[in-house]
Amino acid sequence: MDRYPCLTIDTVKLAHNTKEVIKLCERKNITAMAVTKLFQGNPKITQLMVDAGIKCIGDARIQNLIRLKDIKAEKVLIRLPMLNEIDLLVEYADISLNSEIETVRAISEYCTEHNKTHKVVLMVDMGDRREGVNEEDLLETAKVMAEFEGVELVGIGVNYGCFGGVIPSKESMTDFMNYAKEIQESLNLKFTHITGGSSLHLHMIWEDILPEGVTHLRIGQSINLGVEDKYGKVIDGLYGDVYRLHAQVIEKKTKPSVPKGQIGIDAFGKVPVFEDKGNIDRLILGIGRQDVILDGLIPENDNIKIIGASSDHMILDITDCKKEYHIGDIISFDMNYSSLLSVFNSEYVYKKYI
Ligand SMILES: *Cc1c(COP(=O)(O)O)cnc(C)c1O
Asked: How far apart are CA 17 and CA 54, in angstroms?
């Protein structure tokens, strides 16, 4: 018997998206690094991507890379390492993205002590104002990091779009590539990992405005959701419905749209506001805010409106819906990134591969 709520993972579509993103990156001789943090480093999904041709995987959490220890691919920790996890980092990741000399010194000390090596990519902040050294400090920092024993400086990296919302431009990426060139020349290094940003870089490939020389892009969103954020649309040739959420109807009633009685606060401390629309046809689904962020949910039928949810109940308005729904029916949803992330983080949502 099928159990709900349930997330379906379409393995055929996911493999297709993976292959298409790899092909797109190959146009510019770029290795697509599959970012696995969306699904908590799920080994089955990651293996599917590796089978589709992925050679390098990245995750922000060391716990996820530990889950992926048996997967044969190069592993990158894409969040700056914490000082408390250096031992795990060296054990379970081949490479990490870094911006602090102090952290790289700690990695170096651990590696020399344990006779190990670790590769380091130096992050530069080109404007998004999240991680990375300032541009004017890049060369000096690279010089120091390149000197450490036990660690190898293998490239520089950049991130856009995640905090400041900055979209990478041709100019900015040209500056970035010039930095890469300058560092390699002045320190006599040959970089293997010049890593641009995320899915937000993919349009630069098909628009042919990405400067030559980027070796890696770190891709999560576009492989999994088929979309990228510059245009906010599904990319041509990719599937936008690899993942779908399904929940079961547990109550069907017609009730007034406004509550009766004095209104205090709801389960999340907010004072709810309701528009008086008379009686409305409602459904309750057996899923709630413990399982999913509501904002990014798109119901299967345009005439279904999500009124809201408490921890365990989601309430729908189906007054305008032509289709009849009954107790036990399943309603399906498409999801954006944050909704999908929340679903993967809910233990209550069954995961089903199709
Ligand atoms: C999450 C993340 C990515 C992947 O971003 P998508 O938008 O999912 O492609 C890339 N780089 C870093 C540093 C990240 O944290």
From this structure: 11
- Say yes or no: CB of residue 61 within 6 Å of ligand 1: no
Q: Is 60 in the pocket of ligand 1 (CB under 6 A)?
A: yes
Q: Which of 57, 78, 222 to mutate to test the pocket of ligand 1 (most atoms within 8 A of CB)?
A: 78
Nearest of 225, 209, 205, 230 to residue 217 by alpha carbon: 205
Q: What DSSP string runs through 279-330?
A: EEEEEEES--TTT--GGGEEESSTT-EEEEE-SS-EEEE-TT--S---TT-E
Q: Is residue 195 in contact with ligand 1, taking CB distance under 6 Å?
A: no
Collapse the DSSP code of 256 into the 3-class scheme (helix H, G, I; strand E, B; otherwise coil) and give the result.
strand
Ligand 1 site, residue 77, Cβ cutoff 6 A: no
The one-character DSSP state at 180 is H
Q: Is the pTM of this model over 0.90?
A: yes
Which tokens in the block code for residue 139? 């060369």
Pocket of ligand 1 contains residue 37 by CB under 6 Å: yes
Q: Give me the average pLDDT of each 10-residue run along the chain (354 residues).
A: 94 98 96 97 97 98 97 98 98 98 98 97 94 96 97 97 86 96 97 94 94 96 92 92 97 93 80 87 96 94 93 95 95 95 95 95
Helix (H) or strand (E) holding 185: helix 170-187
**Which two three-digit tokens encode residue 326?**
């009954």
Please give the backbone phi and psi of residue 31, each rounded to the nearest 5 degrees, phi first. Answer: -85, 125
Ligand 1 centroid vs 39 CA: distance in angstroms? 13
Least Cα distance to 328 among 293, 286, 299, 292 occurs for 286
How far, in Å, is the centroid of ligand 1 from the Cα of 180?
Answer: 21
Place of tokens 């001789």: 29
Give the residue from 120, 163, 166 showing the smallest Cα distance to 145. Answer: 120
| Catalytic hit among 13, 19, 37, 352 | 37
Q: Is 270 a catalytic residue?
A: no
User: What is the 35 CA–ligand 1 centroid distance (Å)?
Assistant: 7
